[in-house]
């Protein structure tokens, strides 16, 4: 792929991306961050995003292996027992992001979102905005 025209090739892909964002400056989120470990918040955010996008067809859910093993097991168990997620149409993997193009693509989207929300730079997020949905995470408590 010609790196100078990567954005043209990206727009030719048939994909749908979803992002959930937490505004750490909001009062309730500050409280949440003080009361909970960030891995518990991450797991809750993943669960909320999966419930919001409500996938009802077969999909492979591949996450990077950034969570400790205990939290990966917790997340997998929560997904499998969630009645809002069609378990028979789901495969879950926790892998190293360096080994999978899809995870690298997710990192690209996450980096683009970071640039937009933290730095006000929409240059990258604008490239795939028609294929991307953003949800906002705002909670005062999470279930453990």
Could you provide a short overview of the structure?
With 144 residues, the chain is of the alpha/beta class. The protein has one domain (3-137).
Secondary structure elements and pairings:
Layout: H1 6-12, E1 17-22, H2 27-35, H3 38-53, E2 59-64, H4 69-81, E3 90-95, H5 101-119, E4 132-137
Parallel strand pairs: 1-4, 2-3
Helix pairs in contact: 3-4
What integer value in Å does the Rg equal? 16 Å
**General shape:** globular
Provide the low-confidence segments as ranges.
none
Major β-sheet profile: 2 strands, parallel
Mean pLDDT: 86
Q: How many β-strand stretches?
A: 4
Can you give a write-up of this model?
With 144 residues, the chain is α/β, with parallel strands linked by helices. The protein has one domain (3-137). Helix content is 44%, strand content 17%. It has helices at 6-12, 27-35, 38-53, 69-81, 101-119; strands spanning 17-22, 59-64, 90-95, 132-137. The strands form 2 sheets. It has a two-stranded parallel ribbon. Strands 2-3 form a two-stranded parallel ribbon. α3 (38-53) packs parallel to α4 (69-81). The chain is globular and about 40 Å long. The protein starts with 5 loop residues before the first helix and ends in a 7-residue tail after the last strand. The mean pLDDT is 86.
